[in-house]
Request: fold
Amino acid sequence: MSRKIAFLGAGRLASAIVRGLLAKSVCAPADLACTSKGGTTAQKLAADTGIACEPDLARLLGPADIVIVAFKPQSLATADPRLAELTAGKLVVSLMAGKRLARLAQSFPRARALVRTMPNTPAAIGAGITPYCSQAPLADADRAAVEALLGALGQFLPLEEKHFDAVTALSASGPAFVFEFVAALRDGGVAAGLPREVAAQLALETVLGSARLVARTGSEPEALRDQVVSPNGTTYAGLQVLAARQFRETLKETLLAATRRAEELSRD
Ligand SMILES: NC(=O)c1ccc[n+]([C@@H]2O[C@H](COP(=O)([O-])OP(=O)(O)OC[C@H]3O[C@@H](n4cnc5c(N)ncnc54)[C@H](OP(=O)(O)O)[C@@H]3O)[C@@H](O)[C@H]2O)c1
Reply:
């Protein structure tokens, strides 16, 4: 991609995108520039990757065709009001959780196109999944640019904005639920008599391998589950407890609670 990209914010996620774009040779360091509030994170990202650090907003945004909003959602209200004019005619891609397209349009009213994304933390190692939506249908070149950017974080998928609260619950909060599951498996192994280190390794590799098996075979998880179960065997005994303690119902309630909270938080 030969277009210039400016990053507003140079924290964990901006850093993951920059590193991904450079590693995949999607962009050259000369095409990327960043700024941060205090300047320290931008200076560090620039020093680490060879991209430019440009604290002057007009100089940062002037040559840029794409602007990535990579600061925290709570920073939007106090962001520099000159952004409204300085993003005129540009493709603006927001990484901010919970900021709807209608809200983005207030801060970036003259953008050529507005894109809302919802990354997740595995993006830090290029293993994320990032749904995105746009205010209006994207021109082919803009869609290709957005997908090249998000491809630096892993997988991506276009999705209507009405799904974004549920997406926030499932794929953005989801890693925390999976980490909790891995920790619970580990603790269960310890309760069953395993040394903690052994239980931690077995829990992690079991989750990793099982997820890979679902991905590789394309089978429904229930079908793979049934391959593990034999009548009245050990897996069956464990699944009986999961069912009795309403494991699926509990996870459903977990997702619904997170979705409701995402809806509340994205109202402004
Ligand atoms: N991390 C994830 O996996 C993840 C997942 C989903 C969504 N997101 C979204 O991604 C965004 C960034 O998250 P993060 O984890 O990368 O945050 P982070 O590590 O805290 O970095 C935030 C960056 O924004 C800068 N900043 C703050 N106010 C600014 C302003 N007014 N103008 C320019 N830069 C400003 C900060 O500068 P200083 O260091 O100088 O304060 C810092 O460089 C958030 O909106 C978050 O909702 C992140």
